[in-house]
Specification:
It is a single chain. The protein is about 45% helix and about 20% strand. The chain contains 10 helices and 11 strands. The chain is elongated, with a radius of gyration of 25 Å.
């Protein structure tokens, strides 16, 4: 599934993306599925066999839903935006949204929807509950198996079966989070690529936001991964790169301080001087004098 693509589909705009592309951070999704007091409501299964079928309806009036494609793929138009739902993706749909389903492929499309509610008093604390977003969980075979198990269990009457359904729902949320985080970890599995980018581009004045965006990561997630693997934050790493290069230029050239600041990515030479003194204990001018 290509991220960030946009095109027209029956007059609607297609937005194929993950939570980050829609302004939703991965951490927000994790917080919703782990910290919010979500309650399992039901699970339904739908099968579309007409390849030219079109259905229009509204989502559950009070519950949100997780749409899991089980076979084939389809387009869902929600609030005027087309989302391509394929296996390995999950669509989170808030309550009471206008929704249209179009199945343009030559395959039968089969999917499950798990509905879950949130107490009214928690709605303001977890506004993401009512949002619409699409995210990838990769292969997702384990999640699909759990969803199938939940559908079978939900058909069994009795309190024990309901308790088992609630447990399976929580297990599915847990597996979604694990699979999503695994996808992100795969993006930065080779930290050398990030370090290379930072070493090559620090003089352009890049920030941690720029680095995160270049690799399709949330800034806070990049910082956590960077600290875990390198031992310091990416911001500190960028600063060290710039200060080391500044030392070299101060010792080997007669460039003015303003020019050195620009060459290492600082537009404000006064700010550069403050950072340099904080890092070395000396101002750039005093450092040059002592080292010269």
């Amino acid at each position: 599934m290509g991220e960030g693509m946009s095109r027209q589909f029956n007059g609607a705009r297609t937005a194929i993306s993950d939570p980050r592309r829609e302004g939703i951070r991965t951490e927000q999704v994790v917080e919703l599925y782990t910290a919010a007091p979500l309650t399992f409501t039901d699970v339904i299964k739908r099968k579309v066999t007409d390849t030219n079928s079109f259905q229009a309806f509204r989502t559950h009036p009070k519950a949100s839903g997780l749409v899991f494609p089980l076979a084939g793929s389809a387009n869902f138009i929600i609030e005027g935006i087309v989302h391509e739902v394929v296996q390995g993706s999950v669509l989170h749909v808030g309550p009471d949204l206008e929704m249209q389903q179009i199945n343009p492929s030559a395959q039968t499309f089969e999917y499950a929807v798990i509905h879950f509610s949130l107490p009214a008093e928690s709605a303001t604390q977890f506004p993401l509950f009512r949002e619409l977003f699409l995210f990838s969980i990769g292969d997702g075979m384990k999640v699909t198996n759990q969803v199938q198990h939940l559908m079978q269990n939900f058909l069994i009457p009795g309190r024990f079966a309901l308790l088992q359904s609630k447990r399976l729902f929580l297990s599915i949320l847990e597996e979604i989070i694990i699979a999503s985080e695994k996808k992100e970890l795969e993006k930065v599995e080779n930290m050398d690529a990030i370090l290379h980018y930072m070493n090559q581009c620090y003089s352009d004045g890049i920030t941690v936001y720029d680095v995160a965006g270049h690799f399709g990561l949330d800034r806070r997630r990049l910082t956590a991964l960077f600290k875990r693997q390198i031992g310091i934050s990416p911001n500190v790493y960028l600063t060290h790169l710039r200060i080391q290069q500044a030392k070299l230029l101060l010792q080997t050239t007669d460039f003015p301080i303003t020019e050195i600041a620009e060459q290492i990515g600082y537009r404000d030479h006064f700010y550069f001087s403050r950072v340099f003194k904080k890092m070395t204990g000396l101002s750039p001018t005093v450092h040059r004098r002592h080292m010269g």
